């Protein structure tokens, strides 16, 4: 309150001289506040004390940057198939000694596939868009590129996981194939946060019910949503980042 009063007095004095000033908070202060808010909102997540985090469908590292703030020394392993996006990811984590990334997509088997590269890269998918364009007109233009797919289970020797670990999956409708190709790794995870859809946004994608059944069969319990995506048209829930917790270790 005192600081606010002082600022008001200073601004009034300068106005008498015909000057208008504003107080701009430094970027450092802004970042500190954002980090503090993030930690406060995710206190429940930090209590799990994850030693390793697998980020499947990393894009430019949006999720990785968030969990790095929450877990400063935890090992993060990212998978991102789009070459240009992968390069951005590598640059942003170039000085992070506990970060490792693979320029490959994950699925049910090892193969080369055509990916629909969207103008809005987070919407890129191995599946063609269905109702997605009806809700998001900023993510319409796309072209195809060839990418390499592999199974998550085939990377066990390279990623050197330490329990307890978290697995995040965000692959735009391809989540069920990732699960099928990674059952050995997934069934040992403490938590899985995966994107699920309640509306078919991509052709051939499975919806929440099937993802729920697959992860329940691996010993996980659905405990809620981390975030939800609403339609800009009618605000219905289209997707969510669903949280699944292992029942027993």
UniProtKB/TrEMBL annotation:
It comes from the Bacteria. Coiled coil: none annotated. The keyword Signal does not apply. Pfam families: Methyltransf_21. InterPro entries: FkbM_Methyltransferase, FkbM_mtfrase, SAM-dependent_MTases_sf. Keywords: Methyltransferase, Transferase. GO terms for biological process: methylation. Residues 55-222 form the Methyltransferase FkbM domain. GO terms for molecular function: O-methyltransferase activity. Signal peptide: none annotated. PANTHER family: NODULATION PROTEIN, SLL1456 PROTEIN-RELATED. This is FkbM family methyltransferase.
């Amino acid at each position: 309150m005192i600081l606010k009063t002082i600022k008001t007095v200073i601004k009034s004095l300068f106005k008498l001289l015909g000057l208008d000033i504003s107080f701009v908070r430094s970027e450092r202060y802004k970042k500190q506040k954002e980090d503090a808010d993030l930690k406060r909102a995710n206190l429940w997540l930090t209590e799990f004390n994850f030693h390793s985090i697998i980020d499947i469908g990393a894009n430019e590292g949006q999720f990785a940057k968030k969990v790095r703030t929450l877990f400063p020394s935890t090992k993060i392993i990212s998978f991102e198939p789009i070459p240009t996006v992968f390069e951005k990811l590598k640059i942003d984590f170039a000085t992070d000694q506990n970060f490792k990334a693979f320029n490959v997509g994950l699925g049910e088997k090892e193969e080369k596939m055509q990916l629909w590269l969207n103008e809005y890269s987070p919407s890129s998918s191995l599946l063609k868009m269905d109702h997605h364009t009806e809700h998001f007109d900023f993510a319409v233009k796309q072209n195809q590129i060839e990418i390499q797919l592999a199974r998550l289970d085939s990377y066990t020797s390279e990623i050197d996981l330490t329990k307890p670990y978290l697995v995040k999956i965000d692959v735009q409708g391809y989540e069920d194939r990732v699960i099928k190709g990674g059952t050995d790794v997934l069934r040992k995870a403490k938590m899985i946060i995966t994107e699920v859809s309640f509306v078919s946004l991509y052709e051939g994608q499975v919806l929440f019910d099937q993802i729920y059944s697959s992860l329940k069969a691996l010993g996980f319990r659905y405990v809620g949503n981390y975030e939800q995506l609403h339609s800009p048209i009618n605000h219905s829930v289209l997707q969510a980042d669903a949280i699944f917790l292992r029942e027993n270790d």
